[in-house]
Write a structure and sequence with these properties.
single chain, about 180 residues, alpha+beta, six-stranded antiparallel sheet, 5 helices, 8 strands, about 25% strand
């Protein structure tokens, strides 16, 4: 039984590492990847999160109120963890896979869905990036973001504008290095 718990914990930690990498990588996943991986990523995120509720350590509580608080916090935490893992697997896994497969220079045009509420001047600090904008996606609830936009361009960009991303592309998606706004 210990090897099952250890295997699950290692898989959870790998998924969390991919989630962190998805926040830090300058990567836009391809439509092929999103179409293929949407359901398996959701199932894997659920499979990695639900054991937190089911196989949580059996704790002895002196008061019933403490037990209710413990289970209520677990019930609220698991859906958030499922969402974070799902997004991390959809964005982090192809970003990591992009490094192992051949990539060619490419240019892609994307539609801006929204921009961040604040312009963060620091490059990367706990998932924040300079000039963050969100790109339109066919997948509901998936936030695909692009970072590194100059403040003057970030202030001008609006929802519905198009940007041109330059970088290297593989089957997994595009790792962009520069961008150009098309207005």
């Amino acid at each position: 039984m210990a090897w099952v718990t250890t295997g699950w914990l290692i898989a959870l930690l790998i998924a969390l590492a991919l989630t962190l990498y998805s926040y830090l990588a300058a990567f836009i996943p391809s439509a092929h990847w999103l179409e293929l991986a949407q359901l398996p990523a959701c199932m894997l995120a659920i499979a990695l999160s639900v054991p937190l509720l089911v196989f949580a350590p059996r704790m002895q509580f002196k008061r019933a109120r403490d037990r209710v608080t413990w289970y209520a916090s677990g019930i609220l935490t698991v859906p958030i963890l499922v969402y974070v893992l799902w997004q991390g697997l959809l964005l982090g896994l192809p970003a990591a896979g992009h490094h192992f497969f051949s990539a060619t220079d490419a240019v892609q045009i994307h539609v801006v869905d929204a921009r961040a509420s604040h312009y963060y001047r620091y490059h990367v600090k706990f998932g924040r990036c300079t000039g963050r904008i969100y790109l339109a996606s066919d997948v509901r609830f998936l936030m695909i973001r692009a970072c590194g936009i100059a403040e003057s361009d970030w202030r001008r960009v609006k929802a519905g504008d198009q940007i041109e991303l330059h970088g290297t592309a593989s089957w997994f998606g595009l790792k962009y290095s520069t961008f150009r706004a098309l207005w």
